[in-house]
Amino acid sequence: MSNLQNRDWSRDLAWSGPPPGGGSAAAVGSALALGVLIMLSRAAAAKTEQLEAWRKQALAVAAADEAVLRRLLQLFSSGAVLEEKEILRAAQPLLQLLDLAVQALEAASKLKPQLAAHMQCDLEVAIWQLAAALRGGAAIVALNLSLLAEGGARHALQQQMEESISKGETLLQELQQKAG
Question: Quick one: which of 45, 92, 128, 177 is 20 to 30 A from 19 by CA?
Fold first, then answer.
């Protein structure tokens, strides 16, 4: 994990060894989408510092999700019972991913009117990668929620996830309307 910039995530995902898994893939997809947004922002003479910070954060989320998945696999292989704190820990990187995807979609929405027509296709690629991260991350958080007993922790995670999904889906709809 020492060199996130050059890691071949697709090979690591395809390998039959330990994780990364879908959450890490979604986060790396977000990092790629943010790379496209940075490229487009430069072409539009827009600031890129925040996008770059989010890109790095997406890679950190991928690493965190991988670490959590390794821990869960260790617990499962040892026959240990999965405790609520482990489930909550597993959800955290993906909740960060949902927030990141929403922020990046907001940036894409602001950037869209500034782009020349020939750059719109690149923006669409970034938007769909972010949509995949949003929806994939939400699916994994929902799985974690299903493992929690009813109560405050489950309700708080559910609310946080639903708020992110709602914002993200609204932004996706707006971006699609702008395309038409």
Answer: 128
